[in-house]
Every structure is written in C-alpha cells, then in structure tokens.
# Entry
Amino acid sequence: MLGDEVGSILREKGSVYKVESDFLRSAIFTFLPVLLIVLLLFFLFRQQMKAAGRGAMSFGKSKARLLTRDHNKVTFKDVAGIQEAKEELWEIVDFLRDPRKFQKLGGSIPKGVLMVGPPGTGKTLLARAIAGEADVPFFSISGSDFVEMFVGVGASRVRDMFEQGKKHAPCLIFIDEIDAVGRHRGHGMGGGHDEREQTLNQLLVEMDGFDTQEGVIIIAATNRPDVLDPALLRPGRFDRQVTVSLPDVNGREEILRVHVKKIKLAPGTDLGVIARGTPGFSGAELANLINEAALLAARRGLSAVTIAEMEEARDKVRWGRERRSLAMSDKERIGTAWHEAGHAYLNMVLPHTHPLHKVTIIPRGPYLGATMYLPEGDKYSTQRKEALANLVVTMGGRIAECFITDDVSNGASGDIRQATSLARHMVCEWGMSEKLGMIEYGDGDSPVFLARDVSRSRNYSEDTARIIDAEIKRFIDEAYDQATDILTKNKHTVELIAKALLEYETLDASHLKDIIDHGEMRNPPSAPKPPPVPEEFRKKPAAKPTEDKPDEGGPLAGEVVGAPA
# Structure
C-alpha cells in the first residue's frame, strides 16, 4: 500500500511526527475577550450608577438640600416690604427658639405654612430668613424633584425627606413650587391614578402622621393656590396661609434701600421718587432695576448711580429698552407722532385719567412709540368714570392717525386689544352696565386650570351673550365718538404736539402742558442725540488721489448712504 511505503521511508530517514494538543491554552484564548468585555461593561455600569445617585438603590432618596447655617445666612433684616408676612411668620421663629413656651400651655405650632403670592415677591427669601433667624437646619427642595420616571420613587423620596427632618429636629423643610406635586387629584387628563397622585398621597399621610412636638415645620410656596388639592390645605396639614403680596409705596422704598447697599449711590438721591414711580413692581423687579441702573452708570463712565440712571432703568424694565437705531421711514415716524399725540392730548385734557409720565416716538421694546402714564400712588380699585376716560384715551391714537391719511394702519392693534379687554371687564365682572346689572358673567380673571376647566360651559345663555357683545360695543363706540369730537375741535393743538415729537422725539407732561396752554414750549427739551454708529460703519478718511486713479468723490466702502436719522 502507498501508506505503508511512506511510513517505511520516514522511519528509514529518522523523521518523527508527533501531534500535541493544549486544551487550557485554547480555552483561555477563547474566553478571555468575552471576560474583558463583561468586566468593562460592569465597570461602566457601576460608575454610571454612582454618578446618577450613589448606587442603584438611591432613586428613592430625598433630593432635599441641607443649607448650612453659616452659608449665605439670611435674616429678617434682609427682607423688606412685606411687614405683615414677617410678623405672621415670627411666631414660627419664636417656637423654634423656645418650644417649651408653647408646649407648657398645651398649644401647638402650625404643622405647615403655605406662602402664596405673585412671582418675585420674596417667598423663598422669606423662608430662608425664618431659618436664619431661628438658627435651625433648613432643608430646601423643589416640588418637581419628587416626580421621577420610575413608579413609586416620588413617594419614597417623601418618606426619606421626613425621616431626615426628624433626625435634625427642630428644623424647617421648604418645598418650593409645591403646585408641581400638590395638584388636584382626579383632574388628570389621562385618567385615574398617576405617579404625581401617589406622591401627593404620601405627602398627605406624612404631614398628618408626624407629631408637631418633634419640631419639624413644613413651609411651602406657590403662586397657583387655586390648583392645589383641598386635602392639602385643610387644618392639620397646611394650617396657615400667608399672603405675600406686591409691596406698596413704603415697602418699595424699603426694598430699594436694601438693594442700594450693594451699589455706589450718589449723595442726595431720593429713593422715594423711584418708589412712587414703580407701582406694581415686585421685589425681584426692583432688584433688577437697581442692577440695570448700576450697569447704565458704568457704561456712561459715572462714579456713582444718580436718579437719572434709575429712572431710565425703570423705563427699561417696564417698557423695554430704547431702539434708536431702528430704521423707520418718514411716513411711519409721522404716523407714530400723530398717533401718540392723540393719546397724549386726551390724557392731558380729560379728568379721571392717570397723570402723564412722558410720550415718545423712540421705539422701545416691541412698540414704535409709547404714551406712558404713572398713577400718583398705589391703586387697588377702578372707578367707572376712570374706566370710561381710559377708553376714550385709548381711542385717540387711531383717530389722530386719520387726520393725516385717508387710510388706517395696524398701529392701533394694541389699543383695540386693551380697550376690548377693559370694556369686557366693565360689563362682565364689574357690574358697570345698566342693562346687565350686578351679575358676573364668566369666570373672571381667575387662572385657568385646563384639566379642571376644559369641560366647563359658560354660565349664561345665547341671548345674554348677544347683550354682552352689544354692551361692549356700545362702550367702545361711545368712547370713540367722544374722542373724535374732542380731537377734531382741537386738531391744531394735536398737530403742534405731533410736530414737537418729530423734532424732539420725547416730551414730558410739562412740555405738553405748555403746548396746550400757550401754543409753544417755554423750556423745550434738548435736541435728540443721534444713535451710536458701530465702528465698522464709521466714515473713514478718503484716500489721496493718485495720477493713475483720480478721486471721483463717490461714497466710500462701509458708508451708509441716505440712512434715516
């Protein structure tokens, strides 16, 4: 056979052929890459879980932050303009300082305090001041921190938060924007039970379960108390509601005095003037006003902030920044000047109107021009004569525009919206219509909670709706006719105001009074300054003509030709 012959030949030549097999080495080379991949994935997963929350079991831990007593300590001296709220909350501070004073008489401090008020009024600052005055641990958490993508995490975090509070008692737990977790149960758009309701249920149980003698007090803040669940507001949970409202004129002056400590103020600056000129401003807006004034003074190269910078900052915060560089055509400037002249004249001659602050055709914010009014003091009510006068003033812009053109523009769209809203308030809410009487139609200006209000129908009939529409139109038509009559009889004076606006761009109440009484301004304002020109558009010196290329005298590169002032 051929195989036997090959084998005999190999044996004769002395060659030896051996086949060896190493099972361990092959197994290592086979499974080693798999083990390395598994170890790498485990390491990455472990690091990710640590970064997400100190391990896989930390999802249910509370995210409440414990503020140290020495870090950014705030006291009641740093809170101004809300004296009544401070006095009501001082009782909690007194309890935390000396609990036995209340316990020996059998009294108990409120388990929870709900602070209600518009945004920027200082609810969070007030809670920090309570903790600073009482010198106790202060836990802070947002309502949205409870809700998570995993079911049951919110309730677990609520339990953990109260356990931490009991360990540090006496202490304060502050829940900001509690409406994120405390909304009405059963009003969800998607049906019955959801994660937020489960979290709310646990919060209700914890607030009613722990003992007030332990010294754990819950303070919550919201600007939407109308959407909170009634079970959350009952005595035994949030026993007390503290309204933190917008400051009055004295409160605004106190707030300004607190914030001006951070800036360099010119001597003799009367903060009372700014306080009287900022009705409706919140504490946050006043702080922004002071900051804007300081920035403006720094841009102007001043050594201190004066009253002029504060007034300019006030106008910027309320109405927007001036846009002098906006390229308006001459036709638009003339139309804007007549429009604002109509508003300003009616505001000056009609009784029961707010005093005129100034009128300008310099674009500011979203407006091409503005007639600015400032009430003499804080106003908390509106009289019928005042509302009717405001309707007449609002009509003046469109009427004055029609004096110089046979067409109308969309410049009065804001006036139409404002007048319609005011007339609807007069008819549907304020009972100022003789035909409809003292009845409220609709739900007024209450904030809309879509899940609750989506199925509500109006509470009046079709016939009443037609009467409401007719009354709103009657109020506006009568105001339009009265404004037309006054402006037509005094068209010459309106024209003088419009020409003065075109020349000086901004007039105050004293300038308009001179024009109305004497036909001219005795002390006219200074001429308007041209808008600053960016460096890339500034005119460069012309190059000297050469023999090869003579100077043709044409416009230089980068020069704006024919740009309106």
